[in-house]
Design brief:
Layout: H1 15-33, E1 38-40, E2 46-47, E3 57-60, H2 63-71, H3 75-83, E4 87-90, H4 94-98, H5 115-122, H6 147-158, H7 162-166, H8 187-201, E5 209-213, H9 219-228, E6 231-236, H10 239-251, E7 258-262, E8 272-278, H11 289-299, E9 300-312, H12 319-323, H13 327-335, H14 345-354, E10 357-364, H15 366-382, H16 384-391, H17 393-411, E11 416-424
Length: 441
């Protein structure tokens, strides 16, 4: 019986045999599953042998990739291999990979393969060293909903680098779902449309006080002050965002109308006629929903309007099923959005009503966000070298996978997003127009 480990921890014997076996297995999988892609292996060979130079292919950089996936076939392992480019795509992107349809259902794919060939091939890699690097260290998200915990989670996500975000966001640096008035709109048009529809839904009027909770780089507060004559206040926990937004306010000469606050939402004081929360609710955590909405109720004037814009997940058969987190969602929470949780729209509406609000309008933007994330991904990919120079290859590749995966999830209706307009509940008329016609003037 051959030995598979030498003094360097690498398999020294039968390496050609392992490689030939893997080629046979990959060729068998392509045939059985109807895979319309090829493979490029670490020795320069391909599966199939006559793979066209411009064909979509998975590149496997070393045999440790196979060993790692055999020992721990998890999303985390795949993320480690992807971010270090030990697994890569040639002549295409994750979107091209997602379009591939198997001949059998994905759940039945493994069962359709020759089990003896599978075992004979993969057992030869069991003692091959996994290699490295493994840069994605486990990270526990701060929890508890305190200002310190919120700040820690927000800083992790948003203080990556303003220059990095500028490579792929629109010219106003808006990091939330854009809005198409035509499906061919580019990212700049989509984000301008979004700023306008938010201001119109809130029915902003000159002299009103607007609060934007989670104001990002200040696009909404500046737009509302410039075009609607409001006094706008933006709240963020990100130092990078606050510095950028304050510089923008000064550059536009809006210092007398726009204030950027670097603090937690719960510590904001004052009275506001209109409040917007655009992509902030996802950071709050479902256990802290009541506290969050109580703060908005406290800050909103009688009859005031609140626009709640948040990503959602579909409701499940029961609460236990809904709380079960999929592996890809756990990856996002660990490496991209620490502390994040998604509600379902039914509970969001119920929470708003329990919090003392009257719900006036609920609008789905799911398909808009699929396009937004696709624009972001393509722009980041086009600026790949510049992104690596700014934040490194691991972060760049992690974000490419994240943006592509989220776009595909929105497209396939695995996640959604809604804008919900509410007012502070009171007796009598709401003061809103009888139709939505004013929104689309």
């Amino acid at each position: 019986m051959p030995t598979y480990v030498d003094h360097d921890g690498q398999t020294a014997m039968n390496a050609p045999d392992r490689l030939d076996g893997l080629k046979r297995l990959l060729a068998h999988a392509r045939e059985q599953l109807g895979l319309e892609l090829g493979f490029r292996l670490w020795d320069g060979s391909t599966v199939p042998n006559d793979l066209a130079p411009n064909a979509l292919a998975v590149r496997i950089a070393d045999e440790g990739v196979v060993a790692a996936l055999i020992r721990r076939p998890t999303a985390k392992t795949l993320a480690q291999l992807w971010t270090t480019a030990r697994i890569d795509l040639v002549n295409g992107s994750i979107f091209d990979l997602a379009r591939i349809r198997l001949r059998v259902r994905s759940k039945e794919a493994l069962k359709s393969l020759d089990k003896r060939l599978l075992w004979r091939t993969l057992r030869k890699f069991l003692f091959v060293a996994r290699g490295g690097p493994w840069p994605l260290a486990p990270r526990a998200a701060a929890s508890g909903g305190s200002a310190a915990a919120n700040r820690q989670n927000i800083v992790h996500h948003y203080d990556v680098s303003n220059a990095f975000y500028a490579l792929w966001l629109d010219r106003e640096m808006i990091y939330s779902c854009g809005y198409c008035t035509d499906w061919s709109d580019d990212i700049d048009r989509m984000q301008q449309n979004k700023l306008e529809i938010i201001c119109r839904k809130l029915r902003l009027k000159p002299g009103e006080r607007l609060l934007d909770i989670g104001c990002g780089w200040g696009a909404l507060v500046c737009h509302a002050a410039q075009h609607y004559g409001v006094s706008a206040y933006g709240v963020t926990l990100s130092d990078e965002q606050a510095a950028y937004a304050r510089a923008k306010v000064a550059r536009l000469g809006l210092g007398d109308r726009v204030t950027i606050l670097l603090e937690d939402y719960a510590s904001v004081d004052g009275a506001f006629d209109k409040i917007a929360s655009i992509g902030m609710y996802e950071h709050v955590g479902l256990a802290h929903t009541k506290r969050y909405l109580a703060a908005i109720q406290r800050l909103l004037t009688p009859g005031g309007l609140y626009l709640h814009h948040a990503i959602t997940r579909p409701a499940k058969r029961d609460e236990r099923a809904f709380r079960r987190r999929r592996p890809e969602a756990a990856l996002i929470a660990n490496y991209i959005f620490p502390g994040s949780e998604l509600d379902h729209i039914g509970r969001t509406v119920a929470s708003l009503e329990r919090g003392g609000f009257e719900v006036h309008d609920v609008e789905s933007w799911r398909e808009h966000y699929a396009r937004t994330c696709r624009h972001w991904h393509d722009r980041l990919l086009a600026n790949y070298a510049a992104a690596i120079a700014e934040v490194g290859e691991v972060t760049t590749r992690m974000w490419l996978a994240y943006l592509a995966g989220v776009s595909i999830s929105f497209e396939r209706n695995g996640i959604g997003i809604y804008q919900t307009l509410v007012s502070k509940r009171r007796r009598g008329v709401s003061g809103l127009p009888p139709t939505r016609a004013d929104l689309y003037r």
